[in-house]
């Protein structure tokens, strides 16, 4: 591969003194091996890795604090590392520095079942958290396709298939502990359901992509396991009809738990990868949560809407094992799509538009994709107005990268014109920096920059991400 990530920034010096001090404090939890650094200097984007100088595996807030203080003393960048599943170049050490791996900070600190909250360390993964909650009758609903860490999910303001009903990390993080660039430890929020006490620093850190501090504890909302759950799939003759069904479902206020769009090419990929036999047509996956009666009522209404829009038969997955198979297949869609073209990489788009503009946006996008020589399956959390095109490129062909970026620009600019966003859930990282100004305007991005300058005056925290240091 040869696809350096923009922009090319100068690496900063990494003093041996700092390495000696880290080694004396953390012993063999400091690694400078090529393999470990390479693992931490990449993500799931198409960009070539850019390696940190060292990786330190932290075990508690005090350790994070002491790593940050040492790095601050030597002016060395710090890149928090969760599970490495981000998609936009978030983890690339564009100026070198120390990657703080938080995977060993993976404890559940307290479950407050009566208040429906849990406090965790950042390295716990979403699946491990739900495993720990198994006997409580509660669950944590946010489910990106990867088994991401709760810290990484907070830092990218992630969501997933359940967001249409349960919200994103923005709605579900109640408070957090963070180590700032100068080593101070702050706590934001409380376990109270609401608060008007001052600036909302929790929301500032949620989505900050490691650029403001290292999150070391997080309190999130939990939900009771629904009494009844049922799932269904339905195929449609066209994208427009599938999307219209979703729009009408949302506009009628049906409290649907999940509604995912999978285009015919993505269905083919999923069938092959997960050994399913779905009809290879544009398809919606639905899930309904509630009481037995509530679920039946929601399902009937949506079934009628689908039928009016040309939906070809609802197939129900009522047994838990059938539902898991369906949703596991959906969660594996990214890797299934990669297998459509062995050896390829995906440039993944992530636009999100107001639901009223979704049909128009998807249909116009489909026309762009049809005119392109690249395979471009589409999947989407369409209940939120969010969809992803996986543009499959041969990473050794510059003309394919150029074509993928051309498509990405078209799609993003259309979404912005429709009052939408360049990224519904993956974040900005390196790849979407230019779009941020287009979306928000220079003054708004300058306001973000002023916050960064105030909290991290030496640009130590994950430098070179979200926006440039200087206007
Ligand atoms: C197959 C696949 C499917 C995906 N599906 C979805 C999806 O449906 N929805 C979605 O939202 N995303 C999705 N993603 C993207 C990715 O899973 C999310 O962005 C996720 O939130 C990243 O979590 P992570 O633990 O892997 O973080 P990492 O990739 O390790 O880090 C992501 C960013 O957060 C920062 N960070 C990590 N931990 C901390 C911390 N404790 N404190 C401060 N900053 C921190 C890092 O510095 C980096 O900037 C998908 C990715 C893949 C590969």
From TrEMBL:
Domain of life according to the entry: Bacteria
Where are the coiled-coil regions?
none
Provide the top EC class. Answer: oxidoreductase
Record keywords, A-Z:
FAD, Flavoprotein, Oxidoreductase, Transit peptide
User: Which InterPro entries does this chain map to?
Assistant: FAD-bd_oxidored_4_C, FAD-bd_PCMH, FAD-bd_PCMH-like_sf, FAD-bd_PCMH_sub2, FAD-linked_Oxase-like_C, Oxid_FAD_bind_N, Vanillyl_alc_oxidase_C-sub2
Q: Which residues form the FAD-binding PCMH-type domain?
A: 48-225
One biological process term from GO is: lactate catabolic process
EC code: 1.1.2.4
- Which Pfam families does this chain map to? FAD-oxidase_C, FAD_binding_4
- GO molecular function terms listed in the Swiss-Prot or TrEMBL record: D-lactate dehydrogenase (cytochrome) activity; D-lactate dehydrogenase (NAD+) activity; FAD binding
Q: Which cofactor does it need?
A: FAD
Family per record: Belongs to the FAD-binding oxidoreductase/transferase type 4 family.
Protein known as: D-lactate dehydrogenase (cytochrome)
**Source organism of the structure:** Paraburkholderia caffeinitolerans
């Amino acid at each position: 591969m040869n696809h350096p990530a923009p922009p090319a920034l100068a690496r900063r010096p990494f003093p041996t003194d700092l390495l000696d001090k880290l080694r004396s404090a953390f012993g063999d939890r400091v690694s400078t091996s090529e393999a470990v650094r390479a693992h931490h200097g990449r993500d799931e984007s198409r960009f070539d890795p850019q390696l940190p100088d060292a990786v330190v595996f932290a075990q508690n807030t005090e350790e994070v604090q002491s790593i940050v203080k040492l790095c601050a003393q030597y002016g060395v960048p710090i890149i928090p590392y969760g599970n490495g599943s981000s998609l936009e170049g978030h983890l690339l050490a564009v100026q070198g520095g120390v990657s703080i791996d938080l995977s060993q900070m993976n404890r559940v600190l307290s479950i407050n079942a009566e208040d429906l909250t849990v406090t965790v360390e950042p390295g716990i993964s979403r699946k491990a958290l739900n495993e720990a909650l198994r006997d409580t009758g509660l669950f944590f609903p946010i489910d990106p396709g990867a088994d991401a860490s709760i810290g990484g999910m907070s830092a990218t303001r992630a969501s997933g298939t359940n967001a249409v009903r349960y919200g994103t990390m923005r709605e579900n993080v109640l408070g957090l502990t963070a180590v700032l660039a100068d080593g101070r430890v702050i706590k934001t929020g409380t376990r109270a359901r609401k608060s008007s006490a001052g600036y909302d620093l929790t929301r500032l850190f949620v989505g900050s992509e490691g650029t403001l501090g290292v999150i070391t504890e997080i309190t999130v909302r939990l939900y009771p396991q629904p009494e009844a759950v049922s799932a269904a799939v339905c195929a449609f003759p066209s994208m427009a009809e599938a999307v219209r069904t979703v729009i009408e479902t949302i506009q009628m206020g049906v409290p649907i738990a999940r509604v995912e769009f999978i285009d015919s090419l993505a269905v083919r990929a999923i069938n092959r990868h997960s050994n399913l036999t779905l009809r290879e047509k544009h398809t919606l996956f639905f899930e309904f949560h509630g009481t037995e009666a509530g679920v039946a009522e929601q399902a009937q209404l949506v079934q009628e809407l689908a039928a009016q829009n040309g939906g070809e038969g609802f197939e129900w997955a009522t047994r838990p094992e059938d539902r898991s198979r369906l949703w596991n297949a959906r969660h594996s869609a990214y890797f299934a799509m990669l297998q459509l073209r062995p050896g390829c990489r995906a440039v993944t788009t992530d636009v999100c538009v107001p639901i009223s503009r979704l049909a128009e946006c998807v249909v116009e996008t489909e026309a762009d994709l049809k005119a392109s020589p690249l395979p471009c399956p589409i999947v989407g959390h369409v209940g939120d107005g969010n969809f992803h095109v996986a543009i499959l490129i041969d990473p050794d062909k510059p003309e394919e990268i150029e074509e993928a970026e051309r498509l990405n620009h078209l799609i993003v600019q259309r979404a912005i014109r429709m009052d939408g966003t360049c990224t519904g859930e993956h974040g900005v990282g390196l790849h979407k920096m230019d779009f941020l100004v287009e979306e928000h305007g220079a003054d708004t991005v300058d306001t973000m920059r002023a916050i960064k300058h105030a909290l991290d005056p030496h640009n130590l925290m994950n430098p070179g991400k979200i926006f440039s240091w200087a206007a």
